Amino acid sequence: MQITYDDVSKRFKECKVTGLLGMKQEMKELAKLLYPNEIINYAICGPINKLNYLITSTDKRLIFIHRGFLKSDVFYYPLSEIIFPVVDSGLLLAKISFTHKGKRIEIKNINKVSAEIFVESLIQKTLTEQPVTEVEISHKTISRKTITFNVAGVTKENDQGKDIQKLLQQEGKQYCKENEIDLYNGLTNKEIIEFGDGTSEFEDLYLSDEEVIFIPEPTNPYDENAIKVFLKYGENESPTHIGYVPINKTKELQLILDTKNVSLIDAHYVGGKIKELEYDYETDKDKVVVKELTLGIEISITYTN
Fold it and tell me: Which of 190, 257, 259, 266 is nearest to 225 (CA)?
């Protein structure tokens, strides 16, 4: 049975893969390359020769994919040819290195947590599908879990009386402009038809740990455990209140924040304006249509026990 993009996306979520900024086309290519019985262990994205690659560890090989308008590249190394995988961690970023046929390969500027899990997937060959991932570093075992939720209250006004939907739209566009992030994945309507899939306006907008702020609100009349969510769009910008942690997640998140064991916060835009393909019976061709959903923020927090 042919593996699909949805299969790859689902498996990435099961493996707690995060931070694959702008890797949608590479994920589609990966779906075409995978063998029917091949199991994805983990994936990262990282620079090789100044190009950004999706690097996927499976139970059989290490697959490298880059899809660009000017250049595309695909290659892989069987796991039997990879030796001495090592992660060299800094404060936030890490370097992965391994030896392939006598040559030392380095992949730099990888998120530290992702790098550690990725190297462990190379060592163990297969990651289990349990919700807890155990990574052995310097003979110490660290258990990590992830909590994921969509910010609540994004259709209402914030604590300054401003429409949150308008704020997310305005601030998102400004953030993309300042950080040179292309709207709609940088795809024209012609390219969307060519690739055969849709894309959202803020497909590539991800926010880092420093740009997501949680502030408890014990005086909240509806929930004494309420936690407000703020986004900080840039170093010189004041935090913007964009909603709340869902009420069914507040106690769990407060406990995580109190223990200060957060390893990674990954936040990205969901919904909003989406360009999709629609068949035009009059012209007998596909066309691109724009649909608008509620704009929101999905947050994933990785923490250690």
Answer: 257
SS3 (DSSP) at 7: helix
What's the domain range around 200? Answer: 148-304
Point out the domain boundary residue: 138, 156, 191. 138
With respect to residue 82, please indicate whether it lies within any of the assigned structural domains: yes
- Residue 115 tokens read as 């790098």
Cα 228 to Cα 253: distance, rounded to the nearest angstrom: 12
Half-sphere exposure (CA, 13 Å, Cβ side) for 305? 11
d(CA 242, CA 223): 17
Alpha helices per DSSP H over the chain: 5-14, 24-33, 112-124, 164-178, 189-195, 250-259
Judged by DSSP in three states, 38 sits in: coil
Q: Which residue in 204, 205, 206, 256 sits closest to 227, CA to CA?
A: 256
Tell whether 133 and 156 lie within a shared domain: no
**Is 36 contained in some domain?**
yes
Q: Is 60 left (phi over 0), alpha (psi -120 to 50) or beta?
A: alpha
Q: 3-class SS at 1? A: coil
Q: Which two tokens stand for residue 124?
A: 């163990």
The answer to whether residues 91 and 129 belong to one domain is yes
Residue-level pLDDT, tens digit, the chain, 305 residues: 678 888 998 999 888 888 776 788 889 889 988 988 889 999 998 888 777 899 999 988 999 998 875 567 889 998 888 887 888 877 667 889 888 877 888 888 888 888 888 988 887 653 333 333 444 444 344 566 778 899 999 999 999 999 999 999 998 998 888 877 788 878 888 888 876 667 889 876 777 677 889 999 999 998 899 999 998 876 667 889 999 999 999 999 998 888 767 767 778 888 999 998 888 888 888 889 999 999 999 888 877 76
State the Cα angle at 214 between 256 and 168, rounded to 5°.
135
